Amino acid sequence: MLDAAHDAAPETIRYNGYARRIILEELNATSGRRRQRASGLAAKVGMLT
Asked: Does residue 32 register a pLDDT over 70?
């Protein structure tokens, strides 16, 4: 969902604290696929730079 939201309004995801917290939680998910998707989104919004 957050990836689709980023496609629609990237600035909203980039500066929304709640969305950023969800991304951080997903980076610690047990599912490798969820971690991979969260990592890609974190890179898009500049969290991993």
From this structure: yes
Name which of 46, 39, 49 is nearest 13 in CA terms: 46
- Count CB neighbours of 20 within 10 A: 17
Which three-class secondary structure string do you get for 1-49?
CHHHHHHHCHHHHHHCHHHHHHHHHHHCCCCHHHHHHHHHHHHHHCCCC
pTM for the model: 0.84
Q: Give the start-to-end residue ranges of the domains of the chain.
A: 2-45
